[in-house]
Amino acid sequence: MGFDLLPLLLRGAGITIQLTLVSAAVALFMALLAGLGRLSPFRAVRFLAGTYVEVFRGTSVLVQLFWFYFALPLFGIRLDAFTAGVLALGLNVGAYGAETVRGSILSVPRGQIEAGIALNFSAAQRMRRIVLPLALVMMLPPFGNNLIELLKATALVSLITIPEMTFEGYSLQMTTGRTNEIFMWLLVLYFAIAYPLTLGVRAIERRVSAFLRA
Amino acid sequence: MFDYVTFTWNMEFALEILPQLLRAAWITLQATVGGFAIAVIIGLVFALLRRGPRIVSWPTTFVIEFVRSTPLLVQLYVLYFILPLYGVSLSAFVTGVIGLGLHYGAYLSEVYRAGIEHVGRGQWEAAIALNFDRRRTWTHIVLPQALPPMLPMFGNYFIVMFKETPLLSAITVVELLQTAKIIGSRTFNYVEPYTLVGLIFLALSYPAALVVNRLEARFARQRQ
Q1: Contact yes or no for A137/A208 (Cβ under 8 A)
Q2: Angle at CA A90, nearest 5°, toward B196 and B108?
Q3: Dihedral over Cα of B14, B170, A187, B50: its sign
Q4: What is the DSSP letter of A77?
Q5: What is the DSSP string of B110-153?
Q6: Amino acid B188: pLDDT
Q7: Is B62 on the interface with A (CB under 8 A)?
């Protein structure tokens, strides 16, 4: 069954999880920044946020990753592989998240905002105390799905030599030639990490839709 | 982290490599179309199997969840390295297209499922009342109503798949990204090739996304 392969693969899994968490933090920050930016009253801010979202959603993650790792140094900015990986993944997923943020904020029912106006809340108060709390609840399930996509996307950074799980698997297959066992383990390990996340997201989805109906 | 190098974008070089990249973009498009065709068929098969008796639907559900929970890159490696061990030797391109198709077939099966569930109970009952057999119910009643609202989602996945094809470079398919990599390692100039690749992706996928958005808006209006 190739249990002797596990220690190396699990070491890679640790880096996979680490990469996922750090990139998720970058993605969350960018999603809120750009999502709110796209709803800004200032045209320049809307334009900047919109350009970021469209460029990162319009090109491929792998191309972005290679661009950060291979092309940026020629502009005089040298990133180590881990930073390039986190930046590319975080900025990419952040662009998708920004659309979620924008969509959720726009889908807060008008009545809620009108109630805020009737209660003499200022625009900032309405955003902070009424719109954002409701919108954040709605964002949870899509963010969970983005997290799973992000976890799977971390496999890509093996191509810029970060020793995460796929990289460890690939090098093991090159050195030992035990192709079947190694790739089966890789699939099983990814599934073992991702599937509980999927179940978690579904549970959150149910609670959120129950909450929104109430 | 910053060491300042005077850098200039070499337009002449960029124009020189552009035709080669555009030819490679054609390969990328072919892979996308091929993968999409497989995904559309596999997605439907998965969706129908899931509606079958438990002995069929449970394993199908497991396969779908498994495919969706593991990275496409690893799946491509599995197909690329393991199939030859069992005497199936396909070209890297064909392997990649199959991998792409299988992976997104699992996603498309969810789109089919939602579309099929969207068809009201009354339609099924009407088909029974009119004495339609199972096959005619599907081909004349259910699918014609389920498919049009799915079109925007299909469009979205087509664009997603287009942007995932650079992964095929990892199993040595010489598509757009791999071509840029080859040019880069030959000339030690990575900025122009990789930037052009990004621009080509943007130039193709952004207009496509706008078309899909318009389709989506039209179907949303029709539903109201």
Answers
A1: yes
A2: 80
A3: positive
A4: B
A5: HHHHHHHHHS-HHHHHHHHHTT--HHHIIIIIIHHHHHHHHHHH
A6: 87
A7: no
Q: Which amino acid is at B141?
A: I
Separation in Å, CA of A171 to nearest CA in chain B? 12
Tell me the C-alpha distance between B40 and B215, whole Å.
Answer: 19
In chain A, which residues have their Cβ closer than 8 Å to the Cβ of B70? 152, 186-187, 190-191, 194
Q: What ipTM goes with this model? A: 0.90
Query: Is B201's Cβ below 8 Å from some Cβ in A?
Result: yes
Q: What is the CA radius of gyration of chain A?
A: 21
Q: What is the DSSP letter of B2?
A: B
- How would residue A60 be classed by pLDDT, with cut points 50, 70 and 90? very high
Instruction: Identify the burial level of B80 via C-beta atoms within 10 angstroms of its C-beta, where 0-12 means exposed, 13-18 middle and 19 or more buried.
Output: buried
What percentage of chain B reaches a pLDDT higher than 70?
Answer: 96
User: How many residues does this entry show for chain A?
Assistant: 214
For A103, the token pair is 């969509």
Tell me which residue of A150, A174, A182, A191 sits closest to A8, measured CA to CA. A182
Per residue in B149-208, pLDDT (tens digit) is 899 999 999 999 999 999 999 999 999 999 999 999 999 888 999 999 999 999 999 999
The token pair that represents A58 in the structure block: 């319009």
Confidence class for position B223, pLDDT limits 50, 70, 90: low
- Which token pair is A188? 């099983």
Helix (H, G, I), strand (E, B) or coil at B189: coil
Would you call B33 exposed, middle or buried from its count of C-beta atoms within 10 A (0-12, 13-18, 19+)? middle
CA distance B132 to B137: 6
A202 CB within 8 Å of a chain B CB: no
Q: What is the mean pLDDT of chain A?
A: 93
Do A98 and A30 contact (CB within 8 A), yes or no? yes
In degrees rounded to 5, what are phi and psi of residue B2?
-100, 120
Percent of chain B having pLDDT more than 90?
80
- Residues of B with CB below 8 A from A78's CB? 1-3
Cβ-defined contact of A57 to B170 (cutoff 8 Å): no
Q: Which of B72, B74, B201 sits opposite A186 (nearest CB)?
A: B74
Start-to-end CA distance of chain A, whole Å, equals 50
